[in-house]
Design a protein that fits this description.
The structure is a homotrimer. By secondary structure, the first copy, chain A, is of the alpha+beta class. The first copy, chain A, has three helices and five strands. Chains in contact: A-B, A-C, B-C. The interface between A and B is medium-sized, with 26 and 40 residues.
Chain lengths: 180, 180, 180
Amino acid sequence: MIGRRHLILAGASLAVLPACSQEKTLAVGVAEARLKELGIELPPASKPVANYVGYRRAGDILYIAGQGPDFKNPAFRGRLGETMSIEQGYAAARSAALNTLAQVRAGAGSLDNVVQCLKLEGFVNSADDFTDQPKVLNGASDLFTEVFGEAGRPARYAVGVNTLPFNVSVEISSIWQIKT
Amino acid sequence: MIGRRHLILAGASLAVLPACSQEKTLAVGVAEARLKELGIELPPASKPVANYVGYRRAGDILYIAGQGPDFKNPAFRGRLGETMSIEQGYAAARSAALNTLAQVRAGAGSLDNVVQCLKLEGFVNSADDFTDQPKVLNGASDLFTEVFGEAGRPARYAVGVNTLPFNVSVEISSIWQIKT
Amino acid sequence: MIGRRHLILAGASLAVLPACSQEKTLAVGVAEARLKELGIELPPASKPVANYVGYRRAGDILYIAGQGPDFKNPAFRGRLGETMSIEQGYAAARSAALNTLAQVRAGAGSLDNVVQCLKLEGFVNSADDFTDQPKVLNGASDLFTEVFGEAGRPARYAVGVNTLPFNVSVEISSIWQIKT
């Protein structure tokens, strides 16, 4: 049985889970069960929209292609500071993170093979005066920490850009260490 | 002899080559011959325009610096959705990919030492309402798949930015696995 | 004793140091002494401003989170080509590089464990017509070469973006090889 007390749940917006952020145990190898416990069902790994692949692996390092939020949901398209609120951007980032996990599962065989999320690269479709990209990107790293505990908290950058493919509000790319 | 049938040629815009995208053989170790077959001559690896190097290697991983298209060609400068068409952007991305391959050859000794293209990071100089960055970036990944087959199809992200150095229309960076 | 002649000091803006750019010795393992010699004191590794960590390590590769310049200094906030000159942007990039070195020290135990800077990713808060991002980013790679010699010259990309978190003028992310 996977006890919640074995998870590290640091960071913001984790109110859905009991606080135990002082514990330093990594939650490696229990992510699939954790996902089920959270009631999250991943979408199928999305087909690339152009000439690239969803992931590439070299040794124990897995490179995930840029993932946007669910393309079919118009609520995830638009520019932060113009047509999107921070809350809407956060939801879009969470959707992009779900698409990312689908690629990670495909590339690693199972989320239980994830050792850690090494790097999260986040691009936020932003009006010139919008400067809250970190709050938007938390939608992605919050999901990763819910699923993987402390191992899901990546080194990360968040930047603004003036436009993104298909006018999505967020695009994320990531690098993971996995068991081989 | 290098038979075309040993190459994977998946993806869009590969009309110059016979279709055989169902074959799963990797075309590792024949890239230099393939380049010759395609009639492509690489430019010399360009000198960095500031304080950095063209590539860095750690073990079997090769990091290539950001490459723009041929600086001397004014047709490769400008903003997509304003002064550049998708076709012109595609040509600029292909030119940036040629400059990238020149760096890869310098860093790996020969293109025949390439195992796979792990990651392609693409920045497209874009008007605020331009959202076809993936089509532009295909100019780079199409070249990589022509030369390396399936091994040249990277995990990739494509984003828009409001401006790039020297007003080039595309800048790409990439990570490769090579034989050591 | 650490002789200056053991350092490679290539690139621009290194006037503070005697020229010896022909020498090919790497300055690995002497960075902490070099830092002292330069009179540089690193800030404490800054706490992430959202749900991420300052660095992640897999084997001998260290991924550093996006670092901005000193947040408390308003001179480092603003847009290049609008409210910031290249010189001011250069100073902001140097400040972001100091914050980066603080993370590298935390992640590697000591700067003396740095083998090389593999990759520097630079985002410059830019007006639409500003195209001198490489000169701004030299503020970061110049510092790295002052401290690590040739080993501090990274493969690098520099791009413009229309906005950055907290309206900082520069954000950099980086990947390092370290001794394990």
